[in-house]
Amino acid sequence: MKFISKIMTIFLVIIAIIIGATFYAFKIEPYQVKVKEYQVNSTSTNMKELKIAQISDTHIKEDYTTENLAKVISKLNASNPDIVIFTGDLYDNYAKYNDDANLINELSKIKSKYGKFAVWGNHDYGGGASNQYPTIMENSGFQLLVNESTQITTDNGNIISLTGIDDSMLGNPSTENLSENINADYKILLSHEPDSLNNYINYNYNLAMSGHSHGGQVNIPFFPSINEAATSTTNLASNYKKGLYHIGENGLQNIFVNSGIGTTHISARFGVKPEISILKISL
């Protein structure tokens, strides 16, 4: 009887852990937005620091509305960014849920010293969002870059170029109108899907930024295969999954993959909290 009692106790503990972990994954972690800083390049006392805030994959839907996004934007603004980047997937499925007026109102509150820039994601094309996404971003003060480049000049005279590539899955990515020899002190490339960035490595960008992977959304300790499986099933997110990668000759080119804000497929995160990324660049 004692043996059976111990088995039942262990069984009940396991059930309680599973229930607790499931509740946490669906009801708590998806709303625990963190701000994480990354130093992209080396720094010295005679350099100025540029702060780039990146958010991605908000996937606005019934269980993650503009009220949730408002808290993200409050944290983003508290970081006082010089540049704000959004790397796509604004809504999860526009046909099922949309709230354009409130979304524009919240996105318009984002503050940035030198500007706000965005590119297309695959969900911005799917679900009927393609007719609305450009208008939403424009009315929110974002410049939507579609196979084009723009430049900003910092207070200390540095020229920063930003090149946005159209979505690799549902858009028409092209470099036909882009020059490989952009004249700038620092070159940033934006593309929603991280693995597609290898197609543009010859453009000698200093930093490429993307999202799409959500970092896998699930990363259970001691079971890395679960996270690997989650990212591998996401098209064009197998080579670069989350965080900062140093690539190219002598590792001087950088790829950064934001883990996203929202969720898709299942409304859960475990071990991959929503992230506002602050990339620090010294020039």
TrEMBL record:
It comes from the Bacteria. The chain crosses the membrane at residues 7-26. Keywords: Membrane, Transmembrane, Transmembrane helix. Pfam families: Metallophos. GO terms for molecular function: UDP-2,3-diacylglucosamine hydrolase activity. GO terms for biological process: lipid A biosynthetic process. SUPFAM superfamilies: Metallo-dependent phosphatases. Coiled coil: none annotated. InterPro entries: Calcineurin-like_PHP, Metallo-depent_PP-like, Metallophosphoesterase_sf. One of its GO terms (cellular component) is membrane. Gene3D superfamilies: 3.60.21.10. Residues 50-215 form the Calcineurin-like phosphoesterase domain. This is Phosphatase. The lineage of its organism: Bacteria, Bacillati, Bacillota, Bacilli, Lactobacillales.
